[in-house]
Amino acid sequence: MNWDDVRMFLAVARGGQILSASKRLGVNHATLSRRVTALEESLKTRLLIRRTNGCDLTAEGEIFLHAAERMETEMLAAQAQIGRIDTAVAGTVRVGAPDGFGVSFLAPRLGKLTARFPELRIQLVPVPRSFSLSQREADIAITLERPEQGRLISSKLTDYTLGLYASQDYLASYGAPDTVEDLKAHRRIGYVEDLIFTASLNFTGEIMRSWDASFEISSATGQTEAVRSNAGIGILHNYIARQYPELIRILPETTIRRAYWTTYHESARDLVRVRTVADFLQELVTAEHRIFV
What tens digit of pLDDT does each residue of 109-118 get? Predict the structure, then answer.
């Protein structure tokens, strides 16, 4: 198998078109098509369905894409180790992030990075209960706690705060609580308790011993929407809740503090695309650090 053929397949798979991939690689369209065909013949399988308006991956192509991206990562790591440092900001970087931070903060802003580096492909995915950086379930993970095990490089991304919120309509109907004790007379929104996978998400215990939510949602963005829809009082991320004028902060002296951490596997230390994305994440939160207070 020829690595150059694999590299060309990656360009087509990521761009969805042979023509656009040939322009990015600086090779003739027909030459690129022949090289991908040669790869298919060497693998004795069809990787692409070629159409007049682009290319789709076959089932075998989807499988080979993941293998090819692992090959690419290993190739770039090897080049870095022998002194041929990866200088091209290109390829795929998968960022795993909590849904609130990922959807509300990163999703509207990561387009600036792909505009800056057209050869870079960003995949933004929710961080599940557990994930493996070494198996590339994520290249970079944004976590609520600093990982204590594994060959990982971690740094604090930012501190952030949470507070109690209700909608204007809810408060007009049920009144605003004056004390934490008054919360017992209100409908409360929280996480599904048996699905809380880290102590950092146990916000309610810092406010009252038994939160006893009437509406439980295992999603920060889902809880925000529930509070907006007048379903009750919730503990929301301040940087998310402030985006909605209909949400009112109640008992403002009650503040919960947490932090986000950026983590990637030490094998990715010399990959410029991973470092570039990690640096950009820090650049984003530093530029807008005031919203996290």
Answer: 999 999 999 8
Indicate if 236 and 178 belong to the same structural domain. Answer: yes
Average model confidence (pLDDT) for the chain? 87
- Domain membership of residue 144 as a residue range: 91-157+260-292
What distance in Å separates the CA atoms of residue 116 and residue 118, rounded to the nearest whole number? 6
Give the number of other CB atoms < 10 A from CB of residue 87.
Answer: 9
Instruction: Give DSSP secondary structure letters for 49-76.
Output: EEETTEEEE-HHHHHHHHHHHHHHHHHH
Smallest CA-to-CA distance from 272 within 141, 77, 127, 110 is with: 77
Has residue 105 been placed in a domain? yes
| Three-class DSSP category at 267 | helix
Tokens found for residue 242 = 């402030």
Q: How far apart are CA 211 and CA 194, in angstroms?
A: 14
Structure tokens at 222: 């889902």
Q: For the chain, what's the residue count?
A: 293
Q: Of 60, 54, 48, whose CA–CA distance to 9 is shortest? A: 48
271: exposed, middle or buried (C-beta count within 10 Å: 0-12, 13-18, 19+)? buried
pLDDT in tens, 213-242: 999 998 899 999 999 999 999 999 999 999
Q: Is residue 79 part of a domain?
A: no
Type and span of the H or E element at 179? none
**pTM of the complete model:** 0.69
